[in-house]
Amino acid sequence: MVASALVLGASRGIGRQVALTLARAGYQVGVAAKTVQDAPKLPGTIHTVSNEITSGGGHALPISCNVRNPEEINNAVSTCIREFGGLDFAVYNAGAILWEKVIDTPLKRFDLMMDVNVRGAYVMLQAVLPHMLERKAGRILLVAPPIYSRFFRGKTPYAVTKVGMTVLVHGLARELENTGVSISALWPATTIESHVTTVKGVPPAYFRKADVFADACLAIGQEPTERLNGQALIDEDYLRSLGVTDFSRYQCEPGTEPPRIMPRHFPSLRVQEEDQVTIPDSKL
């Protein structure tokens, strides 16, 4: 049976490349995003990405999906299951961002980030889990960072929403143990080429092609075991763990490695009393 995937937030940037990479690897791909019409200031739609896939011989299904609307997320999931005969891999790449201090972040913008980042991911999880648990198979990936204190600096409201996604990964992983279904988080080690880097004129020496993230995403989706369940991974580090040593093909400026923006090591969140039960499950 041909593998299938749903990528939410797939109209441009990392999401677009993830969809293309999965399709090249043989996945049937649900290309889901809010953008259905091209705009001069924001190029890329579910249709342009789907056309890229199909023109290369792949199978793509464009799905209009505003992740602030739970019904549209549920529809994206059910459409993929119906059209593909199942869903093997679900990727939540949709995101809202504002890097500002608490005092400079309006409540309306904070609500947007909470809706798109945390709530949207939660809705997708509730939509895909019944299907994957019934099949006793499935991989879920949220684009979210490891939890560490420096990430909060200068962008606390945004960090609250992204770390909230990571908490979902760590917490849900415990519920998924020995089910055949696993969830992971993935975050880039360096800045990634995007529409924003182009508009702002960031020199190519400072970022990598989105392929590096997409290749790591593909490897997570294809992992045959549950060993990545609950892990918050970094694209470069995970690829190196698989034996990748040459990252030159990901360089946007040939011969120049972009600076790493993520720490080399992350703190453990485990405590000595990790498995101590303080309240019986039956009382919760």
TrEMBL record:
The record ties this protein, via InterPro entries, to: HSDL2 (IPR051935), NAD(P)-bd_dom_sf (IPR036291), Sc_DH/Rdtase_CS (IPR020904), SDR_fam (IPR002347)
Alphabetical keyword list: Oxidoreductase
Instruction: Report if keyword Ribosomal protein is assigned.
Output: no
Domain of life of the organism in this record?
Eukaryota
Q: Which residues form a coiled coil?
A: none
A GO molecular function assigned to this protein is: oxidoreductase activity
What PANTHER family does its record include?
HYDROXYSTEROID DEHYDROGENASE-LIKE PROTEIN 2, SHORT CHAIN DEHYDROGENASE
Q: This chain belongs to which protein, by name?
A: Hydroxysteroid dehydrogenase-like protein 2
What is the species of this protein? Branchiostoma floridae (Florida lancelet)
Q: Gene symbol?
A: LOC118418524
